[in-house]
Amino acid sequence: MDDFKSIITYTTQEYGSIKVKLSKVLDGKGITRNRLHTLTGIKYEVIDRYYKADNIEMADLNFLAKVCFVLDCKIEDLLEYQKPE
Q: Does the reported pTM lie above 0.85?
């Protein structure tokens, strides 16, 4: 038998979550959300939602790729898996 766990019967508290760290990266580089909007062409509202890590249920890979390119960062700078407690 394999060592993989099925998540079908688990709740979020049991399998962890993904933390969005866009605010930390932008603040660290001294870049505003409005400047990121100008550099990427991404709607300010979308950037603001990721910045606040508010109501993000599915990650937009196109958004993440644009942000990584413009900010010259890695995906792990923007997203972090948090194990369950």
A: no
